[in-house]
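Final report, Chapter 2: Outcomes

The project's central promise was a pipeline that accepts a single protein chain and returns its three-dimensional structure in a standardized token representation, suitable for archiving and comparison. That pipeline is now operational. To close this chapter, we reproduce one record exactly as it appears in the project archive, with the input sequence first and the structure output second.
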Amino acid sequence: MTTTPPKRSRIPLNRCNLAGAIEEIGDRWSLLILRSAFYGLRRFGDFQAELAIPRTVLSGRLKGLVEKGIMESQHYKEPGQRPRPEYFLTQKGADLAIPMIALNQWADNWLGGDKPAPLTFLHKQSGAPLIAALTDEARHRIPISNAKRQIRI
């Protein structure tokens, strides 16, 4: 009996930027922390209360996001309290907005059912809804079915 070797992706994991991005961002908790940061949360206690995440897990994930340059911490001090860190998205973190919006739109389409989307992104001037989409260099919208892969390894 002849067995065929297992199939593999044409791009090895160690050369794949998508795999690198997934590794850089981390796990479910890190994505949820980033989601909350996009919605304006900054303080440890606010992240913990919203996500119901164990303190040690939150501390570790925030530390990792800071070390990777996705977030930065700055100290604030309330009267009579010790200084505490607030966490802000860096430019590297803020640049995750488009993939996060695309993931949000995917969830609206596939997980939302008949419920209206709880969040819509709008153009500041016109108020028109924004859509994360593939475009060519001339900014023409291209359906994924018309995209082809070009692999360079």
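Archive annotation: The CA atoms of residues 37 and 89 lie 7 Å apart.
This record, like all others produced under the grant, will remain available to the consortium after the project formally closes.
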